[in-house]
Design a protein that fits this description.
The chain has about 120 residues and is mostly beta strands. It is built from no helices and 11 strands. The protein has strands spanning about 5, 10-15, 20-25, 30-40, 45-50, 60, 70-75, 80-85, 90-100, 110, 115-119. A hairpin with a 6-residue loop joins strand 4 (about 30-40) and strand 5. It is globular and about 40 Å long. It starts with a strand and ends with a strand.
Length: about 120
């Protein structure tokens, strides 16, 4: 079992930056692909980014490409999402998730952290 806890959300003005962290406990993250998702009330949860267990491969959805960066520190069991040039449309609850490298199912989820970008 893996427990994920996000932190770092908050209120920021458009153009500003935030860094989200996701701390895992229960098992080492070193064999999991980690992802960041977000959800706006009334809309489906969407994938923002993901990173393989080695950190060698990353994916970013088009709407954050060039602005967001994900990284991981397996020794600290922590995954990060650096968000720059934030826009009001980035406002959402951001969730950290983990899946086995050979699976498409996100098995573990954090409780989410609110990010609000004011115009």
């Amino acid at each position: 079992q893996v427990q994920l806890v996000e932190s770092g959300g908050g209120l920021v003005q458009a153009g500003g930056s935030l860094r989200l962290s996701c701390l895992a406990s229960g098992r080492t993250l070193s064999r999991y692909t980690m992802g960041w998702h977000r959800q706006v009330p009334g809309q489906e949860r969407e994938l923002v980014s993901q990173i393989t267990w080695s950190g060698e491969a990353t994916f970013y959805s088009d709407f954050v490409k060039g602005r967001f960066t994900t990284a991981r520190d397996n020794a600290k069991n922590t995954v990060y999402l650096q968000m720059n040039s934030l826009k009001p449309e980035d406002t959402a609850v951001y969730y950290c998730a983990a899946r086995f490298a050979d699976s498409t199912l996100w098995s573990y989820w954090g409780q989410g952290t609110q990010v609000t970008v004011s115009s």
